[in-house]
Design goal:
Order of helices and strands: EHEEHEEEEHHHEEEH
Number of strands: 10
Radius of gyration: 21 Å
Largest sheet: 5 strands, mixed, barrel
Strand content: 35-45%
Oligomer: single chain
Number of helices: 6
Number of domains: 1
Strand order of the largest sheet: 5-6-7-9-8
C-alpha cells in the first residue's frame, strides 16, 4: 500500500483465508513453500537424474503487492467514488476491540477507522474479522470487560457472518450501517476515551494501513459521518510498529490533535 516500504512493514492483521480465496477466484499466483522437481536430459547412454529443489514461499509483502496490483482497478482510496465500493484501502488511526454479543465475547475483532475524501465527505469504516488473524501482541493483550454493549450486536454478527448477504428481519442495510458504527465507536465507552474504554485492545496512531473487502457502503446522515463502509479486512499493517498503543500498558503518550483524532470528531 502507499508509503509502506516492504522491508520494514509489520502486519498486525492478516487474513490468509480471504487472501487465498481472492487469489484463487482471480487466478493470482501465490507461491507456497514446497519443492520443484527438475529432471536432467536423458540420452541413449545417460541416465536421467531427478533433483528436488526447495521452493521458497512468497513473503507477506510480496503477496500483498501482488494482490494490490491485481485489485487496483476496483479498490477505492478516495471516497469521491459513488457507492457501492467492492474493495477499499486507506491510511490513518485504527482502533482494535473485541466484539461483544449479548455479553458473550465472539471470536471476532472489530476495527474502526475514519477518513475524509477529497470532496470533504466524512467516511466511517468498520471492519470485522477473525481474532485468529490478529498478531499475537494484540490478541494476547488484556482488556477490561466493562461498559456499554450494543443490543443490535446479534444482527451485526449475522450480517458479517453471512459476508453481508443476510439482513435480519425488521432491519435493513442502512440500520446495520448505523448500528455497526455505533458499536464500533461506543462499545465499552466512547472511542475517544482511549485506555479507559472497555473491551478494547488499543490503537495504531496515524500510521495504520489497511485493505478491506466491503459488504456494505451507504451514503447516510450519521453525524459526523456522511458515508459508512462495513466489511472485512484483508490486512492491517504499519511501517511504524511503535505507533501501536496497547491500553493494558497504561495511558499512551499525548497525541497530536489532527483532523482524524476521534475525540474532536465525536465530541
Amino acid at each position: 500500500m502507499t508509503g509502506t516500504p516492504a522491508d520494514v512493514a509489520r502486519y498486525f492483521y492478516w487474513s490468509q483465508r480471504r487472501i487465498d480465496r481472492i487469489a484463487e477466484d482471480n487466478r493470482i499466483t501465490i507461491q507456497r513453500t514446497g519443492s520443484t522437481k527438475m529432471k536432467s536430459p536423458t540420452g541413449p547412454f545417460l541416465p536421467g537424474v531427478e533433483v528436488d529443489r526447495p521452493r521458497p514461499a512468497m513473503s507477506r509483502p510480496e503477496i500483498a503487492d501482488r494482490i494490490e496490483r491485481h485489485l487496483a482497478g476496483v479498490t477505492v482510496r478516495d471516497f469521491v467514488t459513488p457507492p457501492p465500493v467492492r474493495f477499499a484501502a486507506g491510511l490513518g488511526t485504527l482502533s482494535f476491540a473485541e466484539f461483544v454479543n449479548f455479553g458473550k465475547l465472539e471470536n471476532i475483532v472489530s476495527i474502526f477507522t475514519d477518513c475524509t475524501a477529497s470532496d470533504g465527505t466524512h467516511v466511517a469504516v468498520g471492519m470485522f474479522g477473525s481474532k485468529d488473524n490478529l498478531a499475537d501482541i494484540i490478541a494476547g493483550a488484556q482488556t477490561t470487560d466493562t461498559g456499554w454493549s450494543s443490543s443490535a450486536a446479534n444482527h451485526i454478527f449475522g450480517f458479517i457472518s453471512s459476508f453481508g448477504r443476510t439482513v435480519a428481519s425488521g432491519s435493513d442495510r442502512e440500520e446495520i450501517a448505523r448500528e455497526a458504527i455505533n458499536l464500533l465507536t461506543h462499545q465499552g465507552g466512547d472511542i475517544g476515551d482511549g485506555e479507559k474504554r472497555g473491551f478494547t485492545y488499543g490503537h495504531i496512531g496515524e500510521h495504520g494501513e489497511w485493505l478491506m473487502e466491503a459488504y456494505l457502503d451507504e451514503e447516510i446522515d450519521y453525524p459526523p459521518y456522511d458515508r459508512i463502509v462495513v466489511g472485512a479486512p484483508l490486512w492491517v499493517r504499519t511501517a511504524s510498529p511503535q505507533a501501536l498503543v496497547l491500553y493494558q500498558d497504561g495511558p499512551p503518550e499525548p497525541r497530536p490533535r489532527g483532523r482524524s483524532w476521534w475525540r474532536r470528531m465525536l465530541d
